[in-house]
Amino acid sequence: MNSIIEAAQAKRAAPLLAAGPQTLHLLQPQDYARWDAFVRACPDATFFHLSGWQKVIEESFGIKTWFYYVQQDGQIQGVLPLAEIKSRLFGHSLGAMPFCVYGGVAALDEGARRLLDEAADKLARELGVGHLEYRGMQRAHPGDDSWHTKELYVTFRKEISSDDEANLNAIPRKQRAMVRKGIKLGLKGVIEDNVDRMFEAYANSVLRLGTPVFPKKYFAKLQQVFGAECEVRSIYTTDDRLVASVLSFYWRDEVVPYYGGGMDLAREVAGNDFMYWNLMQAAAARGCRIFDYGRSKLGTGAYDFKKNWGFTAEPLPYEYKLYASSALPDNNPLNPKYQLFIKMWKKLPLPVANFLGPYIVRNLG
């Protein structure tokens, strides 16, 4: 994993360091272009640091955001996107970033990092939140007792090549057999210009899992805001029946399948297995060299599925700083107190679940 990160960082030239005093600012629309230019060049930054997330989160969920940046001699030296979740059910938090698997400070030096940390701390106190959360791929505050972490999420990232046969052979035998099943059945991948079929497959999947659905307008907003960097790929049978669909992000030389799901038919035809293989093929042809399977919770079916592809789980040491709360948050489906809710949710008619889900999920982040 470290070799992947180091290699990716080596390919990118960081912005030139400035020499004057560093000052803190809040992102304004006129700064979007230079914010994104910094993010695309900064080795610490991820797709989830892009300015587009401000519009996506505020317009999709009505959630307030604060996108801080540090400037020095007219050059951005660090960024920290934050958003507030305030819920009677799930608590009050400030996070970097809700609805994103990666987040936290992306900066060129410790001075900028310190200013951004101080801004987050000050804002958390002013808002009276229970906790502040950073979703980094590595710990940003090792040895600092005011920041806590816990083992819950892992990420799965793997190098891929431009050779389809090499990528296929790298998949363990049993999983490779499932991929070949979809190939033999003539499944095909189609790029969609809207999120309709993707939402249909996704909504069916999350209902089976007993979790609330995101609003359809959220996926449409992702596609609208991120354009060519946000792809919706659907899998169909030879007679054009929908099997599965996935919304993915393209970032630098990486592809990140982010939201997806399958119809009931998918199990019969190995639809999900074929879908990720079809995406891997397309991404490799597009020049991607890292396949980021995204985060999963330990002990879940998604975790097992990704391990079956030969990907190695790498811990995601999310960090938490407590304010009004006395314990770390535990808002996830593995929490025993949510099991009854999950069982009941699975029994809802799909239209009812699709109507109610967005009101709940906006409070989860």
Automatic annotation (TrEMBL):
InterPro entries: Acyl_CoA_acyltransferase, BioF2-like_GNAT_dom, PEP-CTERM_FemAB-rel, PG_Glycine_Bridge_Synth. It comes from Telluria aromaticivorans. It comes from the Bacteria. PANTHER family: LIPID II:GLYCINE GLYCYLTRANSFERASE. This is FemAB family PEP-CTERM system-associated protein. It holds the Pfam family Acetyltransf_6. Residues 174-307 form the BioF2-like acetyltransferase domain.
